[in-house]
Amino acid sequence: MHRSAAWGHFGVFTLWVALTPASQTTYAQNRERGSSASRRPNVILVMTDDQGYGDLGIHGNAKIRTPNLDALARESVRLTDFHVDPTCSETRSALMTGRYATRVGVWHTVMGRSILQEDETTMAEFFRRAGYRTGMFGKWHLGDNFPYRPIDRGFEEVLAHGGGGIGQTPDYWGNDYFDDTFFHNGRPEKQTGYCTDIFFRAALDFISRHRNEPFFCYLATNAPHGPYRVDPSYSDPYVKAGVPPTMARFYGMITNIDENMGRLLEKLREWKLRDNTIVVFMTDNGTAAGLARRGEKGTWRGFNAGMRGKKGSQYEGGHRVPCFWSWPAGLFARDAEVPHLAAHIDILPTLAELCGLPEPDNEHPWDGRSLASVLRNPQATFPNRTLVVHSQRVDRPQKWRKCSVMRGRWRLVDGKELYDLRSDPGQRRDIASDHPELVTELRQAYEAWWKELEPEFEHMVAFPLGDRRAPSVTLTAHDWHPLPQTRGLPPWNQKMIAQDPATNGYWAVHVKEPGRYRVTLRMRPPSVLYRFRTGRAKLEFRFQDETIEAAADFPSGAQQIDFEVDLPAGSARLHSVVQEAGRSPRGAYFATIRKLDDLGLGATPALHSHDRVVWLGAGLFERMQRHGYTETWLLSRLDAQGVTFRNLGWSGDDVWGTARAVFGTQADGFDRLRRDLVDARPTVVVVQYGANEASDENMSPSTFRAGLLQIVDLIESMGARVILMSPRAREEIGPPLPDPSAYNTRLAKLCNVQKEIARSHALPWIDLFSRTGGRLTDDGVHITPFGYWRLGKRIAEALAGPPQPWLIDLDMRTDALEATGCLITALEKSDHGVTWTAVDRHLPPPPPPSDAPHNARWLLNLGTLRIRHLPLGHYRVVVDGKPLQEARFDAFSFGRTITARPGEEQAEKLRKRVVEKNQLYFHRYRPQNETYLFLFRKHEQGNNAKEVFQFEPLVEKVEQEIERLRRPVAHRWQVVRTRDVRTEP
Questions:
Q1: What is the DSSP code string of 257-280?
Q2: In the chain, what is the straight-line distance between the N-terminal and C-terminal CA atoms, in Å?
Q3: For residues 727 and 767, what is the distance between their CA atoms, to the nearest angstrom?
Q4: 619: Cβ–Cβ under 8 A, 6 or more apart, which residues?
């Protein structure tokens, strides 16, 4: 789509991005030197939410306590005529792109108009291209789905809430500012503490890890945005000082921010980063709660620095905000003020000049200009300019709606009111009639600005469907566009959703590839139980040339409504209508869409670094955890780092969660399954069901399919990857044990269902039914320890690929050395043998258990040691002082198979820690004897249900040791001649 250029020729804006050759040369030279003292500056950009210009002590607020921010301001250059948009998303989009928010598709905080267009280049992407490490912590509010999330827009490390605030519809359900679950690199992760503390803590961790390389840290707190929640220790002192209750909490949130800023700056000094770090502090719009509300008691009525208006207003109080710049090593002025008109669109061009970032492409020029010259010299001349801010908050922008055209001391509001801020900073006297020529000039500037941006108004940022990078997409009512018959805002927060409003809207989507799609409608996110009343639902995809519709009846108690539709490629409007008995029609607040593909089976699923793998199933997985072989096999095979495992196996369970109900209903069981899964925070879930269902002669494949699909949809809606694994067939042992053929026939049908779901959903499928690699049981049913060892090997091969043979090939007469699977150092040869130090690429697998047959080690095929041209004699292989094996010189020349390897003791320690971790987690999520714990002792030990969660820190502590133990260590090898032999063989 065509993007118009910045419009300097109207005299309103001059694109003035001065990335001087001198600065480019200096930074290039510094980078080549690699000197930490001369490297490009780090950047920390802090932006708070809804804090106004008057909500700081430095600006004259006599009541609020912000000592650290005030101190930062005195160390900084302060932009005293700095402007943003009057609400959240618009400011953030302009900040991230250096371009007007309306130009990049953002002019609202909901209705699908808060999403930054995909073809825009963000500040983080510019920093990444320049070699910076990038992290974002807090509020994004520019899109919660691929490809609009911060993790998709240039940020390597992200910890963020969903939507425009904690508790909004796209946010993790139930968040309330304390001990919330946030999205860490796109995945939900439970956190501990107050939200602002969490985001600052994560930012400090990011800075600490990257302190020896240039970094860009974007720390955008959700505080002090409402709802106004903070520990009373912060708000009570304000209440006692006469501040009204709402404002007291608002001020308390700001004081908490101030404390965190103090800690941040102190850490920078401690790490010797302060001098070469640019710290920018700003806010996203005027105050939201810094003025007293009607009816609230309190002697303090607030402070707005004499400005008119607050958040959302086109008057100065809605968009003039604080902006401090501090860079000790950059020769910025200290405790100085810059009175020139500046705005959020200037931040990126300024940082580009200061940090040597690349320039934008010709299709996306910046609207802002660099402020570097006045940051270094506040008295420097700065070109006069005209800026526009407006607050639309409608689906399609309206000309002259809540706008301010700004030039120097003048403000033209709504195209008709004119104010002179020099004589009337409170904008109380409209003097438009006294300056008709100036009004005309400013109106013409606005007209030119509007004409340039107007082509963007028809464009809707759409959610891609069928993109291979995001096969499953969950949309929320937060991003509904309004239907002609609907009024007001969509249900944009969880409190509204909980009231089940009778409202509707549509999503703008773009089908990337034609094909068959599954659409799942819900009234709550998958982690929250909601049961429909009986009714009927309709689904509509409205393309430009055709409309595709579907309808389905659903029974009472259903938790979701599924459709399968064939869709062409192209842009469409997705709209649903749900009609429940006794309720008014409404749209489904949540929709999950996935393309049903046939990509084939058997592809090895990749486990990525820091994946959190969950085993979800019945008895096989529950018993598997007691031995620890499967995880140990995987940990010894994977290159990925930081992979952790959680076992949710539950004996007797099925796809409906029946066993998890304990003493409740089947619905209770599935609800517990859901809670357990959500609490485990997986990125990958390995699912195995069917063994118990096959024991039920009345279980039909269609019933099994419905239950398994419900689990798959739940997992995918959480953003996790699904891997299906079939159950094992029972082994034919012979009389007197029962004949397993009837059971295996039923199980085969259920395995075919799994295979079909894997094919249609493009999911990896591990087939244990037809291939397990030998006898695993003594009775046909119950697996032996050696059976679990072999089964672990099979599963590890499926998840991590086949093992790579280990090889050391050495020629004693030359320096020829080939080493596969290990690193060889300190090689020393002599007439009596050879020694070397080796570090294996991977830890050896766990040694076979005590019930293994004598030839079990041959299943390992660990590797080969070949030494050519050894002097005549018998030789012993010794590792770390322990004999391994012995053979003649000629046996080594052909190659000796190694069936025992150094590191096996370490592998066995690793397995024992895995078992310990599994036991702790098993107690944490499922106490061994629920009847005893939750019934008979409920009176005397009623808090145990809560206390079992205290196992989690213990689990994580063991996992730290597991990660350490899985790393191979160096071993000293010796091949030493023990005695001579005759020359002839």
A1: HHHHHHHHHHHHHHTT-STTEEEE
A2: 80
A3: 8
A4: 649, 651, 652, 653, 691, 692
Beta strands in 132-253 (DSSP E): 133-138, 157-160, 181-184, 187-190, 215-220
CA distance 588 to 318: 35
Which helix H or strand E contains 956, and what residues bound it?
A: helix 951-965
Structure tokens at 954: 């213990």
What does the alpha-carbon distance between residue 658 and residue 664 come to, in Å, rounded to a whole number? 9
Q: What is the pLDDT of residue 940?
A: 43
What six digits make up the tokens of 611?
């994946």
Q: Please return the burial class of 815, using the count of CB atoms within 10 Å of its CB with bins 0-12, 13-18 and 19+.
A: exposed
668, containing H or E segment: helix 666-680
- As a whole number, mean pLDDT of residues 511-520 equals 92
Instruction: Work out the burial of residue 781: count CB atoms within 10 Å of its CB; fewer than 13 is exposed, 13-18 middle, 19 or more buried.
Output: middle
Is residue 217 part of the annotated active site? The answer reads no
621-625: which pairs have CB atoms within 8 A and are 24 or more residues apart? 621/647, 621/648, 621/649, 621/688, 622/647, 622/649, 622/650, 622/651, 622/922, 623/649, 623/651, 623/783, 623/788, 624/649, 624/788, 624/791, 624/792, 625/649, 625/915, 625/918, 625/919, 625/922
Q: Using the predicted structure, report yes or no on whether residue 847 has a pLDDT greater than 90.
A: no
User: 3-class SS at 38?
Assistant: coil
Segment of 254-258, 652-656, 707-711, 748-752 carrying the highest mean pLDDT: 254-258
427 by Cβ neighbours in 10 Å (0-12 / 13-18 / 19+) ranks as: buried
Phi–psi pair at 499, nearest 5 degrees: -90, 0
Q: 924: which 2 tokens?
A: 């944490």
Q: Are 842 and 637 in contact (CB under 8 A)?
A: yes
> How does strand 82-83 pair with strand 342-343?
parallel
Distance between CA atoms of residues 809 and 801, nearest Å: 24
* Amino acid, res. 242: G
Contact in structure between 892 and 978 (CB atoms under 8 Å)? no
Question: With contact defined as beta carbons under 8 Å apart, do 191 and 182 qualify?
Answer: yes
**Residue 791 CA to its chain's centroid (Å):** 33
Catalytic residue status for 59: no
Residues contacting 410, CB < 8 A, separation 6+: 418, 419, 420, 421, 438, 442
Tokens of 141: 């509010």
Given 3-state DSSP classes, what are the helix, strand and coil percentages for the chain, each rounded to the nearest 5?
30, 25, 45
Question: Tokens 């994977």 sit at which residue?
Answer: 638
Provide the pLDDT confidence category of residue 892 given band limits of 50, 70 and 90. Answer: confident
Q: Which residues of 180-203 are buried (b: 16+ CB within 10 A; e: fewer)?
A: bbbbbbbbbeebeebbbbbbbbbb
Beta-carbon neighbour count of residue 515 at 10 Å?
A: 17
Amino acid, single-letter form, for residue 919: Q
Spot the catalytic one: 141, 340, 364, 575: 141
Chain centroid to Cα 211, Å, comes to 22
| C-alpha–C-alpha distance, residues 954 and 958, integer Å | 6
**Type of residue found at 533:** R
Please give the pLDDT value at position 858.
56
The angle formed by the CA atoms of residues 46, 52 and 55, to the nearest 5 degrees, is 95
Most confidently predicted of 606-610, 791-795, 858-862: 791-795
Q: CB count, 10 Å around CB of 787?
A: 23
Measured CA to CA, the distance from residue 189 to residue 193 in angstroms comes to 13
Q: In 145-293, which ranges are E strands? A: 157-160, 181-184, 187-190, 215-220, 277-283
Residue 234: which of 177, 282, 181 has the closest Cα? 177
Q: Bigger pLDDT: 951 or 130?
A: 130
- The 3-state DSSP class for residue 883 equals strand
pLDDT at position 939: 40
User: Are the beta carbons of 392 and 38 closer than 8 angstroms?
Assistant: no
153 Cβ neighbours under 8 A, 6+ residues apart: 96, 116, 122, 124, 125, 142, 147
